[in-house]
Amino acid sequence: MDARQKGFLLTALGVLIISPDALLLRLIDIPPEQLVLWRGLLNIIGFWLIVVARYRRHWFRAYLACGKTGLGCALLFTFSTLGFVLGNHFTKAGNVLVILASSPLIAALLSRVFLGERLPLHTWLAIIACLFGISLIVLDDAGSGSTTGNLLALMAAVGLAGNLTLARSKPGTDMSPMLALSGLFTFLLTFAWSGRVMLPGAVDMGWLILLCLILLPIGFTLIQRGPLYLPSAEVSLLMLLETVLGTLLVWLFLSERPGNLGLLGGAIVLLAMLAKIILDRRSLNAAPARA
Predict the structure, then answer these.
(1) Which of 74, 227, 238, 253 has the most C-beta neighbours closer than 10 Å?
(2) Interval 242-268: pLDDT, tens
(3) Angle 37-41-46 from CA coordinates, rounded to 5°
(4) Where are the beta strands (DSSP E) in the chain?
């Protein structure tokens, strides 16, 4: 298995694991600031346990190896989390998803400017097609919203793209341990804003533990390792599949059927991804022949 295949599989598996995020958020009935607070607190524990399981008695060295670059990744991941959750609070969810879908474009531009990475034409076309497909999925929910909410969503998109690009800037160094530090930043910032910690009910706490202690730490650990093998724009592009998978899970378990435009948008995203995978495969097969 070559590096690109490994990066694709790690990222795709991570996206698959976090895809119940939208469904579980519908089931958790607590104020949004408390949701972010508990998300940060449980993420600290979940990400740290994964680091200890992977590195055992050398777990602290994994943090030291990340250095200042890892600190930047943690801060940018924090901005992404806060922007996404609070953006949904201040503006329409459709606005947030459309703006967040621009993260592959932002990552591609950041990688071009700071890392000198070029993307093939078919990757650019896939990014544009997926952005169009995501726009169709959320068209009914999109609207003018509020300037504050739209800016928070843009902060989430820039934070996500910046985090993955920064992780890509230090080849061979795994930045996923720093996600535990991001959980700490998220918890402290939200606590400073809300000023209290509210204990959720048993059912809500159960969903929080499943999502924030298990699924998100495992999924985002895999995704954060993606830039070790793939350009950050391609990792961001694969993450758009979460919107499609999340919509399907909400439809399956809560009977919230997306409209025809939503189904068309999901099909466009999936077909764009499939076409990109096929073209990537052909490029890899053609490389030895050219050599």
Answers:
(1) 227
(2) 888 888 888 888 887 777 887 888 889
(3) 140
(4) none
